[in-house]
Amino acid sequence: PPPPPPPPPPPLAEVALGYPGVHALWAHRVCHRVWHAGPLGRLPARLLSQLVRALTGIEIHPAAVLGRRLFIDHGMGVVIGETSRVGDDVVLFHGTTLGGRSMTRGKRHPTIGNRVVIGAGAKVLGPISVGDDAQIGANAVIVKDVPAGAVAVGVPGRVRENPPEIDPYADPALFI
């Protein structure tokens, strides 16, 4: 039998009022502007970002560069570090970390391409790149570059280029 149709999207009021990922992104846009307003804006930007973290459970450094239409699903425990760059149309699930591996100056966090999906609990660490249309599996720990279109899973992350087409309605247990 054909798969059931997807459910309708939630009403806009529900999204605006009840989605912490949306609230964190709105606040980040404000914090980012304040951060870049000059040296006197950095402390207020950090303080506001910490207030938003307390309210939403999502920590986004004000200096992080986020693309358009980023979607943070559920959100609790998401961390996006200072030198992270995130492309357009990216999906981050709860518990995702875009973090560093050292305290050195300069680029310490990942660069995420466009249309990337990062699964729940995944850790993408260091100044690495994740290419466009890549997928990072749940709870993966990624410390090396992931090419465009590839799938990375496991600890440490193993990259599969040219993954087979996956039926979006297949039982997820088949892939464990």
Question: How would you describe this protein?
Answer:
The protein has helices at 12-18, 20-35, 42-56, and strands at residues 59-60, 65-66, 71-72, 79-80, 85-86, 91-92, 97-99, 111-112, 117-118, 123-125, 129-130, 135-136, 141-142, 151-153, 158-160. By secondary structure, it is of the alpha/beta class. The chain has a single domain (12-160), classed as Hexapeptide repeat proteins (UDP N-Acetylglucosamine Acyltransferase, domain 1, 3 Solenoid). Helix 2 (20-35) packs antiparallel against helix 3. The longest helix has 16 residues, at 20-35. It is globular, with a radius of gyration of 17 Å. The model has no long low-confidence stretch (mean pLDDT 90).
Describe the structure concisely for a colleague.
Helices cover 22% and strands 19% of the residues. It has 176 residues and is α/β, with parallel strands linked by helices.
Q: Secondary-structure map with pairings?
A:
Blueprint: H1 12-18, H2 20-35, H3 42-56, E1 59-60, E2 65-66, E3 71-72, E4 79-80, E5 85-86, E6 91-92, E7 97-99, E8 111-112, E9 117-118, E10 123-125, E11 129-130, E12 135-136, E13 141-142, E14 151-153, E15 158-160
Helix pairs in contact: 2-3
